[in-house]
Write a structure and sequence with these properties.
Helix 4 packs across helix 12 and helix 6 crosses helix 12. The chain is built from 20 helices and no strands. Helices cover 72% and strands 0% of the residues. The longest helix has 31 residues. By secondary structure, it is mainly alpha-helical.
Length: 412
């Protein structure tokens, strides 16, 4: 299939925005529990913490069910959105140039966001988005195989295996305690400009981690997988694909079980035999199992939500995610505004003064507020404020954002 042979899609598919809103819910919970720190704590700070049982439960819940999974859904939807835009255009040079310009604007937004929160993914999305422009004409089979190789982090697997035979640990989590403490002290007590400077200087470290951990490859693979799902009209003709979704759930559960059994058996054997687990082996085996497990669970979340959305009773429940998903970029940035104002020194300065359980509750509260805000916003406006800015800069002219008076009256 080429870019010119695309199925016709409706103007807006509710299930996509619901899924995006659901992904943003999980992202909010993870970031709040991490207290928007986006990196390892210094040993001196981590060892001095005294988490409660409730904090351990919150950390375990987020780590097992949410962390690493919801960003995958968000990434998949970015690739799908590219296809939807492509399907509404002729796929010619004008579209490609405009999309490339949109990516450059997104990168600028991402850099501003990174200055406030070094865990920003928008700048990563913008850079990897050019991969969609390169790969969008690939044949279906080539696109799918390439996507799966990247999603299962095969490039990193090759690097880690190679690392077993050469000097070096192949682990991306190597930071000096002095550097970790310097950043922590900046977030904890530094001025606004000092925090911006520290985050700016950490961009190279973020990119190094993206490559070393393989998240860069996984994200690009998810972009391509979203593009492939668009080609197959998964969301435009969902009823036709319901058997596939049910089958995907079964296979994913099997894969998750295999990852758990593999991890327990491998590291359990090392413990029983009193064999030292080197950093290289731990990162190779543990990292592989973690990547595959996350992919399988993310696939289950997507499939289950789409299946539930076909049922009228569940559709009424899940539709609450629709408005926040419809203004996904605004929602994502707004979460950072709340998080940094709560935890960083230019706000309340509560970094690691709150337990994980309480932070999880904050994440719930923030997202509930965002649902209410988004519902109110779309009574008067046709798109989110940051989406409007992005579109305005894309077309070099002010875009209409307010709804007609008749539409406003109907929704009030």
């Amino acid at each position: 299939m080429t870019a010119l042979q695309t199925p016709t899609l409706p103007q807006r598919i509710e299930s996509i925005d619901v899924l995006r809103g659901f992904a943003l819910f999980g992202i909010a919970l993870v970031h709040m529990v991490e207290q928007y720190y986006a990196g390892p704590l210094p040993d001196a700070i981590g060892n001095a913490m005294n988490p409660t049982i409730a904090d351990h439960i919150a950390q375990g819940f987020v780590g097992f069910f949410i962390m690493g999974k919801f960003y995958m859904i968000f990434s998949f939807l970015f690739g799908l959105s590219f296809f939807i835009q492509l399907s509404k255009n002729d796929g010619g040079n004008s579209f490609l140039i405009r999309f490339a310009w949109r990516l450059m604007i997104l990168f600028a937004i991402g850099i501003v966001h990174h200055l406030h929160y070094r865990g920003d993914i928008l700048s990563i999305f913008a850079l990897l988005g050019f991969g969609l422009l390169v790969a969008y004409r690939l044949p279906d089979k080539v696109l799918l195989i390439t996507a799966l190789l990247l999603v299962f982090n095969v490039p990193s697997l090759i690097v880690r295996v190679t690392g077993l035979f050469i000097e070096g640990d192949g682990n991306p989590f190597n930071f000096t305690q002095e550097g970790l403490m310097a950043y922590y002290n900046t977030v904890r007590s530094g001025s606004y400009l000092e925090i911006l400077r520290a985050n700016f200087n950490s961009f190279d470290d973020k990119m190094d981690f993206q490559v070393s951990s393989g998240r860069l490859y996984i994200t690009l693979g998810l972009f391509l997988l979203g593009n492939y799902a668009g080609r197959k009209n998964l969301f435009g003709d969902l009823e036709k694909h319901l058997p596939f979704l049910k089958k995907l759930i079964r296979y994913s559960l099997f894969v998750m079980s295999g990852c758990i059994v593999f991890t327990v058996a491998l590291f359990g054997s090392f413990m029983l035999l009193k064999v030292e687990v080197t950093q290289e082996i731990g990162w190779l085996a543990g990292g592989l199992a973690f990547d595959v497990f996350n992919t399988a669970l993310a696939a289950i979340y997507v499939s289950c939500l789409l299946l539930l959305f076909q049922k009228e009773k569940w559709q009424k429940r899940l539709i609450i995610f629709y408005p926040v998903g419809r203004m996904g970029l605004t929602t994502y940035l707004m979460q950072t505004l709340f998080g940094t104002m709560i935890f960083f020194n230019f706000g309340l300065g509560l970094i690691y003064q709150l337990g994980s359980f309480f932070c999880l509750l904050i994440g719930f509260a923030v997202f509930v507020f965002q649902i209410v805000f988004a519902q109110w916003w779309f009574r008067y406006f046709s798109q989110g404020p940051v989406e409007w800015l992005w579109r305005t800069l894309t077309y070099f002219r002010l875009q209409k954002i307010t709804l007609p008076k008749e539409a406003v009256l109907r929704t009030n």
